Each structure stands twice: as structure tokens, then as C-alpha cells.
Amino acid sequence: MQAQDKQTSTVHRVVILGGGAGGLELAAKLGRQFGPEHVLLIDRNAEHIWKPSLHEVAAGTLDIHREGLSYFLLARDRRFSFMLGEVVHIDRNERTIHLNPILDA
Prior knowledge:
Blueprint: H1 2-10, E1 14-17, H2 21-34, E2 39-43, E3 47-48, H3 54-59, H4 64-67, E4 69-70, H5 71-78, E5 81-84, E6 87-91, E7 96-99
Parallel strand pairs: 1-2, 2-5
Antiparallel strand pairs: 3-4, 6-7
């Protein structure tokens, strides 16, 4: 049991704020290596849209609901955890992140 405690204490939990191209790629890479219990991605949107395509969304030639990638599905497939939320405060000393409440009809 001591070996297991020693092993888990050396593995860090990584929290990635924002699922843009860089954050999503990092979450997927670390998730495949360490698993969902060690990698958490937080984003205020439930879906990722490739930002260079936003002009197509604005022009109406791309449906964001059909072309967006679900963070929840990506998390399951790439072995990271996902939390929907908007960050309002980070306390580095306490190692905590505060999110706005999620309100839905």
C-alpha cells in the first residue's frame, strides 16, 4: 500500500483553462498519457469550434451546431476530464479555481 501512495503522490493533476486549439491538444495529449483522473479541461462552452472558421459561421455557410466538437465526447475519447464553466478567480496560494454558476432554463 505504501508503494501505491508514493506513486499517486508523484503524479500531478493538471488543470487546463480554455479549450482552444492549444488547450484541447494539450488535454488530449496528457489525457492519453495520464488518464482522466489527472487531466481536467475547463471551458465556458460545451463545444469547440475551430476559430479560423468563425468567418464561415458569421456568413451562414457553416452551422456551428453541426461542425462544433463536443468537449464531453472529446474528453471521453481522449481520456481527459471536462468541466463546463467560466473562470472568475484563480487563487494560486490555495490552489483553487472559482467558476461562475451555470444557469440554464
